[in-house]
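Dear colleague,

Following up on yesterday's call, I've attached the two folding results inline so they're easy to grep. Please treat them as preliminary; we haven't cross-checked anything against experimental data yet. The first protein's sequence and structure tokens come first.
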Amino acid sequence: MNRMPGKLILGGVTGTAAMTMMMLLIAPMMGVHMDIATSLAGIVHAPWMVGMVMHLLMGISSFRWCMGFSCVAIFQPRRLCGG
């Protein structure tokens, strides 16, 4: 059974959570204001929470799926692992 979709979703959740925490907690300490949720919410003229949900959905689903499948197409893990 192929476990790749589960790994991609777990990687998306982990990566999005880590990058969001860095954006909200560490970037202000460096003097950089990065609020992706506000930017996304401003595009659709919605509250901040809608922008955060959009950010999480894009990070968990769209970007991880595209990255995962493009890496499989490029690197072909069966050839690399000898399988």
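Below is the second protein, in the same order (sequence, then structure):
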Amino acid sequence: MFKRVFGLDLALRYRGAIDQKEENDMKYEAMFIVQPNCEEETRKSLIAELTGTFETVNEVEEMGMRKLAYEILKHTSGYYVLAKVEANGDQIEEFERLCRIKEDVIRFMIVKDAEQ
């Protein structure tokens, strides 16, 4: 705290004494469920838009129509999509923001990839 109050932290960073933490991309799995009554063209464009928020997309697996474990927004089935991506915090926030806005997305989840 003493260093931060008197600006020594900035001076030491400027001189290279303290390594600056770089924000590296980490591997994630992003899964989202699209409404079952969504048309194929709309679904394809939605998938492209949502995966386009990430800089690096390693794989997009469309798992297809599946039955939900419980009813979500009066739907009993949904179209599942799994994307393996490399992203930073800003890209994750943008993906979550878009998923909340889009009415065709009924659920979404992002987790760190276990294979790191």
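For the second protein, one point worth flagging: Residues 1-5, 17-22 have pLDDT under 50 and may be disordered.

Best wishes,
A.L.
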